[in-house]
Amino acid sequence: MKVLFVGDVVGKSGRNALFEHLPFLKEKYNYDLLIVNGENSAHGKGITRKIYDSFVNAGADCVTMGNHTFSKDNIFTFIENADRMIRPANMSPVEYGKPVRIIEFEGRKIGIFNIYGSVYMDNVTDNPFKTMERLIEEYPCDIRIVDFHGEATSEKYAFMHYFCQKVQMIVGTHTHIQTADEAIFGRCAFICDVGMTGPYDSVLGRDKYEVINMFYNEEPSRYTISDNPGMLSAVIVDIDLDSESAVSIERIQIKP
Ligand code: FE2
Q1: Over the stretch 184-220, which tens digit does the pLDDT of each residue have?
Q2: In the chain, what is the greatest distance between 2 CA atoms, to the nearest angstrom?
Q3: What are the tens digits of pLDDT across the range 19-48?
Q4: pLDDT (tens digit, 9 = 90+) per residue, 46-105?
Q5: Exposed / middle / buried, residue 24 (Cβ in 10 Å: 0-12, 13-18, 19+)
Q6: 175: CA distance to ligand 1 center in Å?
Q7: How far apart are CA 135 and CA 94, in angstroms?
Q8: Contact criterion met (CB below 8 Å) for 218 and 211
Q9: Which structural domains are found in the chain, ordered by start?
Q10: Distance from the CA of 84 to the center of ligand 1, in angstroms?
Q11: Element (H, E) at 133
Q12: 68 among known catalytic residues
């Protein structure tokens, strides 16, 4: 089973890059499952119904989220009906949406989980390790995939080493910078961060001049998202269903 995971889609140029490159990626990798992190897809913060629908129409089997899940008020009008969306399990408010999506594939149960790092992150409600253990108990699956939305590389590595015999794919999101550490550990394909699908000539998707001004003059910023052409960051992971093990992981970056 081939899984294409597309890293944090940021704003319009990120969405355009995703839609532009998906046909080529489908042709090249012939993936079975498409997962998209959409927590920054509506102008850098949150997601709208229209954007969620556009991801589903583009073939997304699951849309994962993060610290900006609830940044648009609109989310509360559709999150309960958004079957393919998952939100971090251990981030408040926990009462809206769901943290796990289960998909049947070739007679197997594939579980996709959204876990939230506890280091340098706001609104953490519970320990990510214990949250994942609880979810493994609650949702029996043959294959498990985790979007670990977090900042600290150390926490992502510790999490991977703890779960690498029970989880077949753990990919980091949130930092917007793709790391070059993709590898297989135990049964698990891992990368610390998939990277951003968004404006290439920017600072993590934001207008570079505004961010320079923020750091140089120590002034607050307005959070303007760059409209420069988008790059796409992703990984393609191959999971062998019989041995319930990941067999390969490859990084993808397509720059404008
Ligand atoms: Fe984030």
Answers
A1: 999 999 999 999 999 999 999 999 999 999 999 999 9
A2: 58
A3: 999 999 999 999 999 999 999 999 999 999
A4: 999 999 999 999 999 999 999 999 999 999 999 999 999 999 999 999 999 999 999 999
A5: exposed
A6: 7
A7: 14
A8: no
A9: 2-254 (3.60.21.10)
A10: 19
A11: helix 128-138
A12: yes
Expressed in angstroms and rounded, the spacing between residue 46 Cα and the centre of ligand 1 is: 9
- Compute the distance between CA of residue 227 and CA of residue 198 in angstroms, rounded to an integer: 9
Which listed residue (21, 68, 149, 176) is catalytic?
68
Cα-to-centroid distance, 239 and ligand 1 (Å): 26
Among candidate residues 18, 116, 111, 118, the one with its CA nearest the CA of residue 66: 116
**Length of the chain counted residue by residue:** 256
Q: Which residues contact 118 (CB under 8 A, 6 or more apart)?
A: 90, 124, 127, 128, 150, 155
